[in-house]
Specification:
Oligomer: single chain
Number of domains: 3
Strand content: 5-15%
CATH class of the largest domain: Alpha Beta
Radius of gyration: 28 Å
CATH architecture of the largest domain: 3-Layer(aba) Sandwich
């Protein structure tokens, strides 16, 4: 029946409807339509055969039958759709997180009791004995299926074929893109809060975090305007923070200028950095690589940041993990660094 339903639907309408979370809403309309189609064609064939015209809706009988069946189709569509919506509105009690930042957001929202699966990078969840289901990129579909989650929260780094497999197995998957600003970070946390039924907690937090960000921005507004900043987040090759990323907000909120503001790709040579001659250099710790990079930049005595001793290390755990509290912590550290001289 399922495959026949798809064939009938695609024959009449094509396959261009948006897939809302495993296509359940679309399937509900499909099923209603197919029920209507089977019923109306059967009755229409019987009725019009008596009039000697199987293919025509002409005449009073045909029009009456058509109107009756349209009403039936609308009612049936509403029934299936409402049933699906009710299913989606059920409380989420079992969640699998496929990204450390998502896991941190779940803890931030106080909903960790719903977390049944996480990645091998979700340190806090692992300490709480939450089942590991793979890395951010490579996941164990069988493990996730065994956990019977109500929803899986994933990022775009996870292999697309694994996401599709989960959906085909009937598991609801919510996919999050990399946020491009602090506002988008808050927006994604809000989405998670709504999914987990704790949106009120999320709203209360955002007011606090937004106030903290505004306060930190105010500290810098009269100190750093016009100063050039280089924010390094990768080594070998050297990688810089780009515009239109949430990490660029660290620079903008300090009132500084990103030396990479015209770049589209993050790889940058040391020679290019030296030519741009930043006044401030921020280096993410990168598991120990940051210390080495700081020493290298400090060795260039003609570099403004080196000459004025304005090269700083910031924790990768906070600066590179997009949650509202991590963003505020990293921004607070950066503001403290750049305003001490």
């Amino acid at each position: 029946m399922y495959f026949l339903m798809n064939e009938i639907w695609e024959t009449n309408f094509g396959n261009n409807l948006y897939d809302f979370n495993n296509v359940f809403p679309v399937k509900s309309i499909q099923m209603a339509y197919c029920c209507f189609l089977f019923s109306s064609r059967k009755k229409l064939t019987q009725t019009n055969s008596l009039h000697g015209n199987i293919h025509s809706f002409s005449g009073k009988t045909g029009k009456t039958l058509f109107a009756r069946e349209i009403r039936f189709f609308v009612a049936l569509s509403l029934f299936f759709t409402i049933s699906v919506i009710n299913g989606f509105s059920q409380k989420v009690e079992r969640v699998v997180s496929l990204a450390p930042s998502i896991t941190e957001n779940i803890y931030l929202l106080g909903a960790q009791d719903k977390l049944v699966g996480c990645t091998s990078y979700c340190k806090r969840a692992i300490a709480d004995d939450v089942t590991q289901v793979g890395s951010v990129i490579n996941i164990n579909v069988e493990k996730i299926l065994a956990l019977q989650p109500d929803v899986v929260l994933a990022v775009q780094l996870t292999k697309a074929q694994d996401i599709e497999t989960l959906k085909k197995l009937g598991i609801r998957v919510e996919l999050f893109s990399t946020p491009k600003s602090f506002d988008e970070i808050c927006g994604q946390t809000r989405e998670i809060g709504v999914l987990l039924g704790v949106e009120n907690i999320a709203e209360q937090m955002f007011e606090k975090f937004n106030n903290q960000v505004d306060s930190l921005k105010g500290v810098c507004e009269d100190i750093l305007p016009g100063l050039k900043m280089f924010f390094q987040i990768g080594a070998d090759p050297v990688f810089t923070v780009l515009p239109n990323t949430y990490m660029n907000d660290f620079i903008l909120f300090c009132g500084a200028e990103n030396i990479a503001d015209s770049m589209k790709h993050g790889t940058i040579t040391r020679e290019s950095v030296l030519v741009k001659n930043p006044d401030i250099i921020i280096v993410a710790t990168m598991g120990g690589f940051g210390e080495k990079e700081k020493k290298i930049w400090s060795s260039y005595k003609g570099l403004n940041a080196a000459k004025n001793n304005r090269i700083y290390l910031v924790d990768s755990e906070t600066s590179c993990s997009p949650t509202p509290n991590n963003f505020v912590k990293a921004l607070s550290d950066i503001v403290q660094f750049v305003t001490t001289q």
